[in-house]
């Protein structure tokens, strides 16, 4: 009976926008229906995923050794590991697994599965491997780096000097830290792909849900893992719907056709604030909104030009009008709430100062340039606002818009002039996560192709700041480490960088008022196990 009802609901939800005469007054009491854009979901293999949308799915399917807290960014919580310890010389981390944890298949979760999952990640060398490769882990040293002395013990030996805390935090991220059922995956190994083709649309985790169905750009259905080792999930099923339009999400949420909407515009979220049937939750996110220049361009190689741009951004205006629900004012390269983060520098729109700086740089009448931005909100609105303030200083910026691949593709190829973007790490609650993404550039050569580093994408290279970032990460005296990160931010401001943040990302979600237990996670890995309906 339930199967027939689910099938009927699936047909109705997928086949109709439900905007005129909805067939359901409300969603079933034992099913959670979630709406968001799924256009970036290309695979469900944890080793290969990109983008937060896929993380939102897999956070409910796979467990990690540890989990990052949804409220306190600095807190790491036990998950499959009940405890862990760092060796006195900071060269190894030992995890003790909890007893009784099983995969959805019924196979026990063992240290061998954890070690196999980490080795698989580095062997495949797909998108998520970069998190560990950054800290010296490779397929070549994986055998020595990851060991299982017994069935409940995992030892990670660090291949180079690094703050062990950031490795523990990395293992709390969906993707690099996801633990797979090695037996099940290897049953589907094809020509040595370590089950990658099969995992594109299947799952092998120990999380509260299993993958029931994925139809690209349509829906994902998750079924409750009845043998889940932890507290039983509140919902029997979760249906995630591909809803690209914010207005569709809003209207369906208001009518009760969906329970949660993840990707709505600021205007729709603001409208929902007035409803007594819907609530809006906002929590810290990952990374920044920023204005980036390409230092491959002769104009932007001049420090005075970059300094002028700093004073042609209306920081407060952008955050008041464009970024509610998306960001909050931040003009430093480390997110608030992380240790070592300095207060905002207090930059403000100052057209006259910017004009004087441009004149000193040899551009008394300004210049023409291009400004790239993704066509989605809030990027286009932010770009339009920045275009207007640039014009006040004499800089005529033609906006070029397109998809994420088109806009960031040009940045990865270092073929752009100005760009309004979002990024800069932050998935890990550690300053290095921000700085390594937005500041660091170990090799500025074009052939290096270090596209994971936004510093490389902008062609910003400063040997001193690279050394400062490396030194801060391995500093064992916490008080000195805090001072090191403060010094990096001050120095970064002084060298007039290629990326100027104007806001740090926050995430917002709308949900029906009878939904309880929803807690947005800043690392995108919001787990829906605790969600219930009061009906």
Automatic annotation (TrEMBL):
- The leader peptide range reads 1-25
* Solute-binding protein family domain: residues covered: 76-444
Q: Which GO terms describe its molecular function?
A: peptide transmembrane transporter activity
Under the heading InterPro entries, the entry gives:
Peptide/Ni-bd, SBP_5, SBP_5_dom
Q: Where in the cell is it found?
A: Periplasm
UniProt keywords (A-Z) are: Signal, Transport
Please give the Gene3D superfamilies that the UniProt record associates with this protein.
Answer: Dipeptide-binding Protein, Domain 1, Dipeptide-binding Protein, Domain 3, Periplasmic binding protein-like II
Task: Name a Pfam family for this protein.
Answer: SBP_bac_5
Protein's name in the database: ABC transporter substrate-binding protein
Which species is this UniProt entry from?
Answer: Ferranicluibacter rubi
**Lineage of the organism:** Bacteria, Pseudomonadati, Pseudomonadota, Alphaproteobacteria, Hyphomicrobiales
